[in-house]
Design a protein that fits this description.
The chain is α+β, with helices and mostly antiparallel strands and 201 residues long. The protein has two domains: 3-50; 61-199, GAF domain (Beta-Lactamase, 2-Layer Sandwich). 44% of the residues lie in helices and 25% in strands. The protein has seven helices and eight strands. It has helices at residues 3-14, 21-28, 32-44, 60-82, 124-130, 172-175, 179-199; strands at 48-50, 56-58, 85-92, 95-102, 117-119, 139-142, 149-158, 161-171. It has a six-stranded antiparallel beta sheet. Strands 1-2 form a two-stranded antiparallel ribbon. Helix 1 crosses helix 2, helix 2 (21-28) packs across helix 3 (32-44) and helix 4 (60-82) packs across helix 7 (179-199). The longest helix has 23 residues, at 60-82. It is elongated.
Length: 201
């Protein structure tokens, strides 16, 4: 097999779900050293990523392709329902990347450009992608990432793993100090709608 064939074997194996190297190598039919070298190379280009337990998973350049297509109208609808800016983030290493954004019509609004790389350590979307959960299905933050900004996020799961976080964000003056009370349910609904769309894509 050539390098391309071996790389595809790694990606095909990961399509079944997250795997540590000890499982990935035999699943791809490759020696452990080869599987590791290829997975790390694919990770550098965004085709492979790692979850919170260090297992290899499909990366945002693959998950994101179908994800962005099916999520775009739902994220736009979330913006329309809340009147606030809506975003979709995926994890990339120790950061999160905005892969979709729909800006609020208000003159005072949160603007996060597609492609923006933000820390996992701050903000509700970062919490979701780090694996934080709540019984409500959503997580809120107030002025964690930026002064004057509040947000609410919910996780989007695929094959039992969180692959993205959908969010609304805006000024604290509109969202309040408990933004989840105002928008938590609708953000959670949007996350579930994306999950359903992914299953049928």
């Amino acid at each position: 097999m050539g390098v391309l064939d071996k790389s595809v074997a790694v990606l095909d194996a990961l399509a079944a779900g997250p795997m540590p190297l000890t499982e990935l190598a035999p699943a791809a039919g490759l020696p452990r050293a080869t599987a590791h070298r290829l997975a790390v190379a694919l990770e550098a280009h965004g085709f492979v990523d790692r979850d919170g337990e260090g297992r290899f998973v499909l990366g945002p350049r693959l998950v994101g392709s179908d994800l962005v297509t099916v999520a775009a109208p739902i994220v736009a609808g979330l913006r329309d329902r809340t009147g606030e800016s809506a975003q979709l983030y995926v994890r990339r290493g120790d950061t999160r990347v905005c892969v979709l954004a729909a800006e609020s019509p208000h003159s005072l609004r949160t603007i996060v450009a597609v492609g923006s790389v933000l820390p996992l350590a701050r903000g509700s979307a970062g919490k979701i992608l780090r694996g934080d959960t709540s019984s409500s299905g959503w997580v809120a933050s107030v002025e964690e990432r930026e002064a004057g900004v509040a947000s609410v996020s919910a996780g989007v799961a695929s094959h039992g793993e969180i692959v993205a976080a959908v969010s609304v964000s805006g000024p604290v003056d509109r969202l309040g100090r408990a933004p989840g009370r105002k928008h938590g349910a609708v953000v959670h609904d949007a996350a579930q709608a994306i999950e359903r769309a992914l299953r049928h894509s």
